[in-house]
Design a protein that fits this description.
mainly alpha
Length: 71
């Protein structure tokens, strides 16, 4: 069930890309949804060159030491 404080939307995605995201999510012990959020946050951080809002509570894995210092 989606968190009430999160925006939901439909996403059409290439099956090959989806499979890659699923593998990353499994390796990082995250759900696919949490992995997509993480990747979007990483991309924004790289693009904007500054910290992006920290994830709200949910099923995301705790940040690594490197990630925690970047938030």
């Amino acid at each position: 069930m989606a968190s009430p404080d999160k925006k939901s939307f439909a996403l059409r995605i290439d099956p090959v890309l989806w499979a890659q995201i699923e593998r990353l999510a499994a390796a990082d012990l995250r759900s696919v949804n949490a992995q997509v959020e993480y990747l979007l946050r990483e991309a924004l951080r790289a693009r904007l060159g500054k910290a992006v809002a920290a994830p709200s509570t949910g099923d995301t894995a705790p940040p690594t030491a490197d990630e925690a210092t970047q938030l």
